[in-house]
Structures are given as structure tokens and as C-alpha cells.
Amino acid sequence: MAEVRVTVDGVNYADEVEPRMLLVQYLRERLGKTGTLIGCDTSNCGACTVHLNGQSVKSCSVLAVQADGAEVLTIEGLARDGELHPVQKAFNECHGLQCGYCTPGMIMASVDLLGDNPDPDEHEVREGIEGNLCRCTGYQNIVRSVQRAAQMMKPGAAVPTEQPAPVAGD
Amino acid sequence: MTATADATALEFGKSRTRKEDARLITGRTRFTDSITPSGCLHVAVVRSPLSHAKIVSIDTAEAKKAPGVHGVYTVADLGAEAVGMPCAWPITPDQKAPQRPVLAKDTVHFAGEGVAVVVARTLAEAKDAAELVEVDYDPLDPVLDMEAALAEGATLVHPDLGSNESATWVFDSGEAGTGGSVSDAIAAAEADPDQIVVRRRFRQQRLVPAFMEPRSCVVDPTGEQIVIWAATQVPHILRTMTTVTLGVPESKLRVIAPDVGGGFGGKIGVLPEEMMTVLLAQKLRKPVKWTETRSECMLTAHHGRDQIQDLTITAKKDGTITGLDVKLLADMGAYLGLVGPGVPVLGAFMFNAIYKIPAYRFATTNVFTTKTLTDAYRGAGRPEATFGIERIIDELAVELGREPLELREQNWISHEEFPFTTVCGLTYDSGNYEQATARAKELFDYEGLRREQAERRANGDKVQLGIGISTFTEMCGLAPSRVLGSLAYGAGGWEAASVRMLATGKVEVITGASAHGQGHETAFSQIVADKLGVPFEDVEVLHGDTASSPKGLDTYGSRSLVVGGIAITMAADKVIEKAKKFAAHMLEADVSDIEFNAGQFTVRGTGAGKAIQEIAFAAFMAHDYPEGIEPTLDSDAVYDPENFSFPHGTHLAAMEVDTETGRVTLRHYVCVDDIGNVVNPLIAEGQVHGGLAQGIAQALFEEANYDDQGTLVNGTFVDYTLPSAADLPSFTTEIVSTPATSNPLGVKGVGEAGTIASTPAIVNGVLDAVRHLGVADIEMPTTSQRVWRALQDAKGRSTQETPIDTHSPGAGLGSIDPNNPQGEVQ
């Protein structure tokens, strides 16, 4: 067993874990963070995407012990004080989800994408989220959602929103 | 939204954002694998790596000693040798149906079939122990090719059945009296120099539905009812079929489909793993969870399509179609799925599509192979049919030298001819193919693109342009129960609903439809808000739990709105009729003088009125209500449709093909779909987008490939090339509306339209780009490599065979170059 100390969605945890335990298993099975989902076993689908120290990662390709000392943000910690993140709002407004299974990962990947590129064109959005698979939407409304969120997050945007939430615990 | 409904602000037709999103965008979800009752045990299945083999021995001794292991079982250990999964569709009285066991008994029939199961405290412990189970196999010859499987002396998948042919189902319009004899039509065409006969063979490759949520099942036997949570489209059918399969009384079962992450037909089965989990929970008296990995899902969840289509079409040289003959071979895989044998039959009524075809014959022969079984996948039989007819119409146009869209118009049912009874005996109630086509051509700039195409051809451009056409229809709203009965289907096609008026004026709607991404909670709330004149927010839709929605036939076949939605409408109408009696009593008026509009019951000619919420409260209090009635407004309804609905549309694809590399690019896609009245345009458009992506993926990217030993070689998301956002463009979609006359809402269904229509549009477009270079056909998926090979063949150049050619450079993410499998830099 190995010790891991990690902050997840603003809460500090200290646990003994098997060295082989994946971060996504730790989140779901040990912390009850079942908002983060598993869609494949080859790190292709991206359903399990979370932020590790502010960067999006597929939590199936990170060992829990690798998150030792890190801050993790999951879909469950993205809204702040009851206020949805602009990307969450945009996915609702633009019908960027159907079954919702890819959605947590898709939203976390999109938040990271907009951090790197605050005003992506359609091509840049499509390239930026190609590591996250969706089988329901054909991606068109996901692309619209990300671009809508970019508009909402612009300084002085007409839509009142908060800045993207920093990593929980900051 | 105010508490009082505004009659002018109808919900029907409004692009409401979805109420179910609030949970899904915040991670406040309950997918089956996220449900872990206290003390829950976990399951790992030991699966066969071979497609066909005798099981010589299974040694579970070491696995049983492993830490955390509660038990290791073979089918004999479970006492389940006699248990077989149900097939609900015997398409012929003599259909051959093998027993599909919970775990393989003495023989495995496809790679991935379960042979033993480990139950342990944690999933990790279960998987570790599963590695310790030793299975000794004696390999048998795989059965992979359908035509070889039917040949004399072929290895039999199930020797006790005596044949690899499960059944042959035939429809002949001459014999049915719904049209002429197609053999006469072919003979006449062959003898007449003014007619033409076109014969083609098309292949519908095998696909994996690839819903994002792997299948899962949790069974809790603690309590009076056994509770089953399952990632399923069909909780009601699963309950009944669990009783049929295991003998547990239906009243002792509660099935819950919580949040379900997509299905596309792939979750309509009754699974060996589900039945196994029930047996394990009963045996161990503890909650038990089974969740598959993605790789297990690719290998064992049912696949879709997989047909060889031999089509013969006859026509006069002026373009008038005189007959169509269809012969299918349909690969069932190793066993029959719940409705698998009927999937080709669902296509039987759609090969004639939108065309006036006077003589028609359809025959499908369903064949066993040692592959994963096939069953419904988005469209189920109708995409295959639409592909066949829309491809051969293009072939006929080529042979006749006709413009393909004009040839279609010459033969389609004109809008003045509805209702129209087809050569299959179905009555299309409404449609307007001219309207959808005209609008699609306009959005597409059809004439402009034809000009550009001609220029590129004339210039010999490296990148050629092709225009792909698909003018499709489908039959939705499965289904009139009497029709299903006539096809020997194992259930009816009705749907049930209840509307409950709560004491405080809120409304609960209970539906037997079972959503897994469709947005029922939103769309059904809109319908009921209008019907009862209550705020949208006051309507709660309950579904997917047999305890709260005890009666239903679930979601598939684009039926939820056109069948389930009508049942809800009928239940709401009954609520209004009951409330009128209360209103008359409260307002001291005659029932015949009570009018209802926008939530208010008023006495004709007076200002006196009561809101429906007030009446709901009065019914709840029941201190003063009319004699001879029950103190409730709650109402149930069951709707059995009298006919299918027939959405249609015109889809146009601009395909660019690089003639040097074979690279195919979808430049522009336009579709105009006529889906009748639309409850929520935002949701309908989303359904079209997703359907298009799946249909386009069949044309361009996806195929489940087996090697010569019967091993699925692309059974992960690394190499089964599901399109990503970067692989698709944005589509131009529009909806036109010719209301259905077969149901009171005028709705037609939209869930499968995009998938059904788009595949032939893409392939017709690819061929249109390269046909002038001598290419006659390219099998799906039309990957760069296949297109390049076809172009080389057309030039008379030889190309190197590759063993499995979707593993090709350019086939998608994770492609493997067969000549350089390690990806070494050369």
C-alpha cells in the first residue's frame, strides 16, 4: 500500500491505496466521486477527464499515487457556490449533451481548452476535444457549446458569468 | 414562468433547453456502475479467447483460494445448464434457435463468450482471481463466411440444429396480393429491348453500437423484491424476460434503468451477464455488480448490420421502375438475440422506400457464424434497406444515363398521392418529397456544385467532387400490435402512461418509455404543460423504474414520442374529463356547460371558473365532490398505434476525393427531414446530428473486423475508429413538416432518421466523385486505402493485399499500417 494525500474539489484526503489503483478508481470507489465516469480501458474516450493541478488529464491514465500532493478538480467541483461554470451553462443552452455520459469529461476538457485558447474557431475546438468521444451528438452542438462558453467568458461579456473556477482549494 | 399558464405561449414547438441537463452537467448522476449497495460483491467473467472450441476442462481451484473471493462458478456450478436467453422473434415457425447459455457449457461459439465467473469483495480481487482460472480448450474450425456456412459440408456452429441456416423469411407482393410478381417483371425486362435489368451486390459491414456507457447490472436480493439496476433501454421487457428466463415471479422483481448512457439499440438485449448476476445474487444473498470493460463490450455486446445484399431492379428505358428483387444473407452471429432475427425483416417493408414499385420480392436467409451475435442497431433493418435501394437507384441512373435526382422524382410518390399504399401493403399517411428535396437542393446549391463537379472533371483536378443523394423514408413508432402479431413478434407495440394530479397542483407523468439520452423529461413535460395548462416546471416525468412506471414497452424504433407521447396525451385528456365533473359540481353547473382552456375550467357564458390546480386540491380533500365518481383526477392510458409513421427526407453530401491518395473528405452535408410536427426543435435537431454522425461513420470509418480465426481484431477504441470531433464537419440541417395523420399530435419520430439516410448519401457521393475514372463500387467503410485501391484497380495497376484493410494508414486514430505494424520510422 502507498500513501496518497490529495485535494479533490476543495477537500483534503489522506489514504492508503494499492500502488496500481488508477486515479479514476480512487475518485469513484474511495471518494464516491461518481460524477467522473469510465467509458473505455484504452484511454481513448476521455469520459474520465479531470483537472490535475489545473491541467486536464484522463484520470484512467494516472495512478492515484501520482496525484500525491496534487489538487484535483472534477466535474462535481466545477460549479462555485451554486453558480454553474460558463462551460456547463453553454452545454445546457446549446444542447451539447444527450445521454450525458461523455459530458463530465467533455466539459473538463473544454474548460482546459478555453484556458489555452480563449477564442477558438470551429476547427480549433474540434481538434482540441478530439481526445473525448461522444456517440450521441455528432459533436456539432458540443462545438457550439464551447464557442458559446468562450463568448460568455470574454471580459465584459454581456452574459454575466464568473471567471472560470480556479482549482478547488485555491 | 408565472403560475398561471398563458394560452398564447404554447410549449409545443418551443426549443426548450433540457431539464435533465442540470444533473448531467454537474456530475450529479446515477449511472448503474455508480450504484454500489452496502456489501456489494463484484464480478469478473472469464471469457473465451477462441471463437469456436470444445471446453475440455475448467480448473477453478487456485482462483477459489485467492484473497477476497466469495466464489468461482461455471454454468454447472450455478445449476443453470438449462437456462437460455430469450429470443422474442421467431420469424418463421421452423426458425432454428440454439440455446444461448448464461455461460458456455461444453462448447464456446464466439470469442468473448463467458465460460466462468468470479465473485469477490472488490473488482480488482475478482479480476486477479479470474486470471487464475485455467480453461483447457480443444479448438474447432471457426465459421466466418456466410456463403461458406451455407455450403454443403460446412462446419456447423450448432451441430444439433443440422444447419447454419436459422430461417428464411420471404415477402412476395405477387403472392401477398399487394403488387405484381417480380419474377414476371424480371423475365419481361430481360425479353424487352426497351427495358433494363440492373443487378448489384452490396455489403453491409458489421458495426459496433459503441454507446459510451459500458453495460452494467447491479442486483440486490435483500428485501421482498429483487431489485435490478441495469444499463438497459428496456427495463420493462427485462423484468418480464427475467421471469421467463429464470422463473422468478414478475411480482418479485423490480427493474430500474437509472441514468443510461446511450443505447442505439445496443441495450435492448436480455443479457447472459444480467441473468448470471441475478443467479449470483440469489445464491450469495448479497448485492452483486457486473460492469463490463470497454473491450468486453466491443467483443460481447451485440453488433449491428452485417448483411450481403443481392438486388435486382428492372425499369423501362424511360426510367420507370417495374420491379425490385432483394435477397439478403444476414449474419446472426453465434446465437439469436432478443429481436435479432427480425432485424432484416424490419427492412423488408422499406426497400421499396419512397418509390412506386409495382412488383417486389424480399427474402432474407439468417445465418449462424462463430461471431458475436447481431441485433438492433440504430435503424435496425431500415438503414440496410435504405442503403440498398438508394445505392441501386444511383446504379440505375448510371445505366440509363439519367440525372439521379430526376430519376428518383420520376418514380417517387408525389405529394398529391397520399395516403399511398405501397407494394408491401403499408399505407404511408403523409409526406411531401418534392418540398424536402427542393429545400435541400437550395440549401446545398445543388446546381452550383454540379457545375463545379463538371469543371473539375473537365480539368482533371487531383481532387474530384462527388454529389451523394439519399431520399429516404422509414417506418417509425414500433408498432401496431396486430402488425407485430402478424409477424410473430413476441410482444405488442403499445405504450402506457399515467398522469397524476398531486394535491398541490403539481403533475406527475409516468411513462413506459425509457429514455437514455432522448430528452423525454423535457419533451413530455412540454406536451403535458400544454394539455393541462400548467407550467412546464410543474410537470415531473417519471420513467425507467418498474415500481413507479409499472407498465411499458420501453424505447427503441423511434417510438417514444409517436407511441409513448400519444399515451400521455390520452391520459391527460382523461384527467381533463374527470376534472370537468369536479368543476361542474364546484361551479354548480352542468358538465356539458364546462369548457376547458389553458388550465381553467369555466362555465360557458359566465366568468365563473376554477383552475385545474384548485380542482386537484378539491379532489385530494374530497370533502365535497359529485356523487357516483371516485375522488381522483389521476388517469391511465394505453395507446396502441393503428399505423406506423413515415418520416422522410432528402440528404445531400458533397464529397471530395483526392485521386492520388484516396483521401475522402466530407465537405458539406445538407439534410431536410420531414418529421411531422416537432415538440422541441432543439432536441429534434440534436437527434438528427447524432444520427448523421453514426450513419456517416458507417460509410467512412467503422467496421468490426475478424481475422481468419474468428478473433475480433479491432475490439477497442484504439482501433475501432469511432469518429472524433475532428473527423466530422458541421451539418446543415433543416426540418419541414407534413403532419402525420395517424396520430393526434401529428408527430413522426426522429431518432433514427439521420442514421438511416446518411450512409448511402456518403457512399453515392464518393462513387460519384470517381466513377468517371472507372470505379464501379467501393465497399464500406470507404477508407482512403479502399478508395486508393479502387482507383489503382481502375487503372489496371495491381495493389498489395492487406489482411484486414480498415487497419490502414488514414483509417483513423490508432490505425495500424499492416506493413509496419510497430510504426517504426523508415
Radius of gyration of chain A: 16 Å
Q: What is the assigned CATH homologous superfamily of the domain at 429-476 and 645-826 in chain B?
A: Aldehyde oxidase/xanthine dehydrogenase, molybdopterin binding domain
- Unreliable stretches covering 5 or more consecutive residues of chain B: 1-5, 805-818, 820-826
Can you identify the CATH class of the domain at 429-476 and 645-826 in chain B? Answer: Alpha Beta
Q: What structural class do you assign from the helix and strand content of chain A?
A: alpha+beta
The largest β sheet of chain B comes out as: 7 strands, mixed
What is the CATH class name of the largest domain in chain A? Alpha Beta
Poorly predicted parts of chain A: 160-170
pLDDT average of chain A, as an integer?
93
Radius of gyration of chain B: 28 Å
Q: Kindly estimate the percentage of residues of chain B that lie in beta strands according to DSSP.
A: 15-25%
**Strand arrangement, major sheet of chain B:** 3-5-1-12-9-10-11
Order of helices and strands of chain A: EEHEEEHHHH
Number of strands of chain A: 5
Number of domains of chain A: 2
CATH superfamily (homologous) name of the largest domain in chain A: Beta-grasp domain
Oligomer: heterodimer
Short description:
The complex is a heterodimer of chains A (170) and B (826). Chain A has 170 residues and is an alpha+beta fold.
